[in-house]
Amino acid sequence: MRSDLFFPQISLIALMVCSVYLDGSKYTQPMSRRTIAIAAVLSMLALGSPLIIANANPLANQHFDQGVEKHLAGNHQGAIDDSTKAIEINPQYADAYRLRGSSKFTLGDNQGAIADFNKAIEINPQDAITYRIRGLAKRWSRDYQGAIADYTKAIELDPQDAYAYEVRGSARESVYDHDGACRDWRKAVDLGLEEPAEWVKIHC
Predict the structure, then answer these.
(1) 174 in helix, strand or coil?
(2) Separation in Å, CA 202 to CA 26, 43, 171, 182, 197
(3) pLDDT (0 to 100) of residue 41
(4) 56 pLDDT band (50/70/90 cuts)?
């Protein structure tokens, strides 16, 4: 069964909530790499990516689907191996690069993950989700300015994404841009999120 059809009800919320807490800030406890990367993969599958459809090489898709299953089962090296096979068959398979990057991130290879996310963005520069996920790896690497740039690009591509404002606010707080953090959290609240309202009340 196609993996993008197998998880039709999974929301992007998991990814965005995970990404808020990467630096272990005072707002909550940091999420594990595995939790973050699983949320990233599930968020990807929830969309039924048009790139998967456009790049519909059956063998490449088979390896991709196997890689997703292995990633979700905790076999991240197996997921890397399968996504690499998908990329060898179809070098323009952006979702396979994103899957491999998520698996590398889980195993602690931040730079390898970022390189794969860079390639996915090169193939599809209009994909806001990949910018968000790359921002996760950059924040974990404490490249807060790089993370802020990625979240800003995600917002440019999807101005109604409340979660992108929320995570950018947290990244700004990490670099002591208190006013910028408060602006982003207020915008996230305006777009419908509840949790940043508490941060605004306490810290802004």
Answers:
(1) helix
(2) 12, 31, 17, 11, 9
(3) 52
(4) low
- pLDDT by residue (tens digit) across 26-52? 333 344 555 555 555 545 554 444 444
**CA 152 to CA 156: how far, in whole Å?**
6
37 contacts 106 by C-beta, under 8 angstroms: yes
Residue 52 tokens read as 């998967």
Query: In terms of C-beta density within 10 A (0-12 exposed, 13-18 middle, 19 or more buried), how is residue 5 classed?
Result: exposed
Q: Which residue has the tokens 């968000």?
A: 132
Interhelix angle 128-140/162-174, nearest 10 degrees = 20
Who's near 117: CB < 8 A, 6+ residues apart?
97, 98, 101, 130, 133, 134, 137
Contact between 33 and 59 under an 8 Å Cβ cutoff? The reply is no
> Domain 3-158 carries which CATH code?
1.25.40.10
25 pLDDT above the threshold of 90: no
Rounded Cα distance, 201 and 12, in Å = 26
| Tokens coding 195 | 């949790």
Confidence band, pLDDT 50/70/90 cuts, at residue 163? confident
| Per-domain boundaries in the chain | 3-158
pTM of the model: 0.74
Measure the CA–CA gap between 175 and 190, rounded to whole angstroms.
23
